[in-house]
Amino acid sequence: MTGEPLLSVEDLAVRFDTEDGVVHAVDGISYTVDRGQVLGLVGESGSGKSVSSMSLMGLTAGRRTTIEGRVMFEGRDLLTLPGSEVRAIRGGAISMIFQDPLSSLHPFYTIGRQLIEGVRAHQDGVSKKAARERAIEMLGLVGIPDPRGRVDAYPHEFSGGMRQRVMIAMALVNEPKLLIADEPTTALDVTVQAQILALIKRLNEELDMAVILITHDLGVVAEIADEVAVMYAGRIVEQAKPEALFEAPEHPYTWGLLRSIPRLDTPRDQELVPVAGRPPSLINRPSGCHFHTRCPYVREAHRRIDPPLEPVALGQEDHVVRCLLPHETRLELWRSLESGADAAAAGRAAGTEVTEIKA
Amino acid sequence: MGVLLLIISAITFLIFYALPSTDPAQLRAGRSGSPELIASIRHNLGLDKPIYVQYYRYVKGIVLHFDFGFSYQTDAPVRQQIVDRLPATISLTVGAVILWLTLAFPVGIVSAVKRRSLVDRAAMGGALLAISAPVYWLGLVALYLFSNDIGQFKIFDGAGTYVPISQNVGTWFSSLLLPWMVLAASFAAFYARLLRSSLTEVLHEDYIRTARAKGLSERTVILRHGVRAAILPLVTVLGLDIGILLGGAILTESVFNIPGIGRLAYDAIKASDYATIQGTVLFGAFFIIVANLIVDIAYAVVDPRVRY
Amino acid sequence: MTADRQTPLIEVRDLVKHFPIRSGFLDRGKGGVVHAVDGVSFDVMQGETLGLVGESGCGKSTTARLITRLLDPTSGSIRFDGRDIAQLSRKELKPLRRDMQMIFQDPYSSLNPRKTVGSIISEPFLIHGMEKDDAKRRKLVEELMDQVGLNPEHYNRRPHEFSGGQRQRIGVARAIALKPKVVVADEPVSALDVSIQAQILNLLRELQRDLGLTIIFIAHDLSVVRHMCDRIAVMYLGKIVELADADALYGHPRHPYTGALLSSVPVPDPVLARERKQTVLGGDVPSPANPPKACRFHTRCPKAVDGTCDVDEPQLEVKEGGNIAACHFPLADAEVAAAVPTSEV
């Protein structure tokens, strides 16, 4: 990969003005996506993972929404482009698919019509017939059997997995350079999830299409991402290549996520350790490190100082973390935690104090 | 459908025949009718038979001959009366429907899209007024203000100027303008509010987000994707409203003295002309039932998920 | 209570539930049936956690609702504590409800938003006419709240004041209030965020240990089921295709469907994800209204043999390693090792 990244998000912030106060949904995040790269954005509900990517395309705009920062795509800032030019990019060079394919397709129109509409919105002077051929071609590409016979069917006539394929076909009609997939497999059965992930990976490789994959499922990310960013309370708290992130995670929240899920590749009786407490309010955010209210390794200073996102260590510029603990302490803690120690024991081993967090 | 009409006819029959406030025969005989005269009228009309016989005859007449009996007042066949009055009612209804839909759609859409804006608040406030205003009051006020005869601003034709479309299209049109507006006012307001709430809901649907994500223009998103889905609840109400109005817009027709079915029913009620009342009620019921069927069909046309 | 895991507490035999398909008024009568549960037999042992897994439409939730008699079975028997409860009337079922409780998936919709938490958890006592003394009942409820990790001081709060995880704790407290013998948990964590899931799973395990509960645990997430269950029944289109101890099922699945399920689960380990050979099934789960003939899995099965699997329905029988599976061509160890991340062969 050479030269400019395809997409470069710089200090993106999204705030919603509500009756209860200002919700800081996205709080200054930056990342880049290269051509053909798969970036996984991982987080729980309220982490800002969906809002941040919808905002790239102006889909969160509203009178009570403030969006700041820069979103550079092919040399242009999507946040300052006039509406008509943003629309030309939406569904054109950048397209999206969503979690629930049934509710995301218009129930009253045939899928063919919905695909054709997408083609003709972006390609001037394409005849209806040519657009229809394009639609059929795309349905075939995503693995819909008998695309010519199915093109005039309505969304409710398809199964869940097939509907998500239709959504993907719709996203592909204008040869996007970037696909934003927002929890694309969460509503699907596990065997169908495997199909859809394999399809996204195949399209990523064959069409050299970059993908931002938004998910809460660490397993899904590990399957297909080239780069993973973990989000918490509207920020990226850790970002790395998946090998590094899963092998040597450095943020206590990432540890929490990894240790709270049962997984097939660890012993069956491995204890689950939930992240204590609950996600913070995005209106009255915690002072200092936003994770300090749930972090067992919190020190007094962490309640005051807001850590920047910086490389975990010198020479490891592609693994960044937002944590005030020393690098060596973090490594030591994770080593103990991974071998089954609880937070208290890990803290002792790493020589750092441990605070008990109330649920 | 037949069963439903039978039940409705039985109920109205019971109400008007079995529990009469005024004896129809007496009415017919006049103030000075002798008991003999009344008795003979009763016999002629078949009112001396037991009620089930009367009812049987009535239903038999309708089923076999599409015969609704004769008006007690004028002796004219009820069927003929209704058929004569139908064009006026249809004229009033169709015109009003077109008018209120052309008003309601733009207002409802703009209100939904610019929710909580000044335009929206003004439109919805006005709509509330229009819904709250009783149609006969609105009619009288309109006549008082705008009619050619008694109005303060002589703009529109006044009451009682209706002529059939076959006679003179221009007069027909101008005479109906004011009634159309009066009748459409509250409906337009109601439909605008209905569309606003339905469209507001639809605009939060995932498929609207998809349409935007496809890069469609906002206009296409709202009109082709939003409104298309939002009209579903309007279809139901519109069908019923048309059915009801075809059965007779009693108040509007009375205020503007339009010789429609509503006016016919109103006159018949005043004169205790039960045969005619019965006929208009059945006609009204018939229209509502037909409208219901059409609504079901329209539903399937609008929403492919209903087809099977 | 002795939790010996040897004595069956519930014995389900040939359980069938067909739902009539509602059809339009034009073709009334000829509508078919959905074979939601189609001849399912299994035992639930005293004190164990039995898992029911499968994808949407496999009948796992229907089975749960049949066992708790929230639905009436079409046919078959359910023996609970030695007594057939499949055909009991509503009235006869009432005492049974004390011994069997359910926890539902959605902690948002299964709690009455107008009631306080205290009165929600008190409900079972009132329904069954127990603990009529208000003060005593309140004390019990507060103990329950403490037991499931809720602050008893929040007795008078309403559900919307709680987070998703806490609401599920309320659901758990209500379920264990009457000290039931069995708790049926239907997707209890699938609506929760990952970091919260673990709290509820740990709570359920703790309660089982402390109260000697028998749990029927229904989920689509195979990792969660593996963590929670002693034995697992895998369902596909209304039938059990494989039944085995957790270690056997995950270590050496025999039914190709179980193998494919395990192979499809994404593992949070990029190295393993790259190395293993995934078995990705084609197509979708067929409609339970019109299930395939003979072996219902033959239309998607990578090992299906024409002339056998589509004509001859395999029966559940003991396969190599002790798994009970319904398959003519069970997976061999080599196939398992290549595709299943949990394989122990």
TrEMBL record, chain A:
<comment type="similarity">
    <text>Belongs to the ABC transporter superfamily.</text>
</comment>
<keyword id="KW-0067">ATP-binding</keyword>
<keyword id="KW-0547">Nucleotide-binding</keyword>
<dbReference type="InterPro" id="IPR027417">
    <property type="entry name" value="P-loop_NTPase"/>
</dbReference>
<feature type="domain" description="ABC transporter">
    <location>
        <begin position="7"/>
        <end position="258"/>
    </location>
</feature>
<protein>
    <submittedName>
        <fullName>ABC transporter ATP-binding protein</fullName>
    </submittedName>
</protein>
<dbReference type="InterPro" id="IPR050388">
    <property type="entry name" value="ABC_Ni/Peptide_Import"/>
</dbReference>
<keyword id="KW-0813">Transport</keyword>
<dbReference type="InterPro" id="IPR003439">
    <property type="entry name" value="ABC_transporter-like_ATP-bd"/>
</dbReference>
<dbReference type="Pfam" id="PF00005">
    <property type="entry name" value="ABC_tran"/>
</dbReference>
<dbReference type="InterPro" id="IPR003593">
    <property type="entry name" value="AAA+_ATPase"/>
</dbReference>
<keyword id="KW-0472">Membrane</keyword>
<dbReference type="InterPro" id="IPR013563">
    <property type="entry name" value="Oligopep_ABC_C"/>
</dbReference>
<dbReference type="Pfam" id="PF08352">
    <property type="entry name" value="oligo_HPY"/>
</dbReference>
<dbReference type="GO" id="GO:0005524">
    <property type="term" value="F:ATP binding"/>
</dbReference>
From TrEMBL, chain B:
<dbReference type="InterPro" id="IPR000515">
    <property type="entry name" value="MetI-like"/>
</dbReference>
<feature type="transmembrane region" description="Helical">
    <location>
        <begin position="281"/>
        <end position="302"/>
    </location>
</feature>
<keyword id="KW-1003">Cell membrane</keyword>
<feature type="transmembrane region" description="Helical">
    <location>
        <begin position="172"/>
        <end position="192"/>
    </location>
</feature>
<protein>
    <submittedName>
        <fullName>ABC transporter permease</fullName>
    </submittedName>
</protein>
<dbReference type="InterPro" id="IPR045621">
    <property type="entry name" value="BPD_transp_1_N"/>
</dbReference>
<comment type="similarity">
    <text>Belongs to the binding-protein-dependent transport system permease family.</text>
</comment>
<dbReference type="Pfam" id="PF19300">
    <property type="entry name" value="BPD_transp_1_N"/>
</dbReference>
<dbReference type="InterPro" id="IPR035906">
    <property type="entry name" value="MetI-like_sf"/>
</dbReference>
<feature type="transmembrane region" description="Helical">
    <location>
        <begin position="229"/>
        <end position="251"/>
    </location>
</feature>
<dbReference type="Pfam" id="PF00528">
    <property type="entry name" value="BPD_transp_1"/>
</dbReference>
<feature type="domain" description="ABC transmembrane type-1">
    <location>
        <begin position="86"/>
        <end position="299"/>
    </location>
</feature>
<keyword id="KW-0472">Membrane</keyword>
<feature type="transmembrane region" description="Helical">
    <location>
        <begin position="125"/>
        <end position="146"/>
    </location>
</feature>
<keyword id="KW-0813">Transport</keyword>
UniProtKB/TrEMBL annotation, chain C:
<dbReference type="Pfam" id="PF00005">
    <property type="entry name" value="ABC_tran"/>
</dbReference>
<keyword id="KW-0547">Nucleotide-binding</keyword>
<dbReference type="InterPro" id="IPR050319">
    <property type="entry name" value="ABC_transp_ATP-bind"/>
</dbReference>
<dbReference type="InterPro" id="IPR003593">
    <property type="entry name" value="AAA+_ATPase"/>
</dbReference>
<dbReference type="GO" id="GO:0005524">
    <property type="term" value="F:ATP binding"/>
</dbReference>
<dbReference type="Pfam" id="PF08352">
    <property type="entry name" value="oligo_HPY"/>
</dbReference>
<dbReference type="InterPro" id="IPR003439">
    <property type="entry name" value="ABC_transporter-like_ATP-bd"/>
</dbReference>
<protein>
    <submittedName>
        <fullName>Dipeptide ABC transporter ATP-binding protein</fullName>
    </submittedName>
</protein>
<feature type="domain" description="ABC transporter">
    <location>
        <begin position="10"/>
        <end position="262"/>
    </location>
</feature>
<dbReference type="InterPro" id="IPR013563">
    <property type="entry name" value="Oligopep_ABC_C"/>
</dbReference>
<keyword id="KW-0067">ATP-binding</keyword>
<keyword id="KW-0813">Transport</keyword>
<dbReference type="InterPro" id="IPR027417">
    <property type="entry name" value="P-loop_NTPase"/>
</dbReference>
<comment type="similarity">
    <text>Belongs to the ABC transporter superfamily.</text>
</comment>
<dbReference type="InterPro" id="IPR017871">
    <property type="entry name" value="ABC_transporter-like_CS"/>
</dbReference>
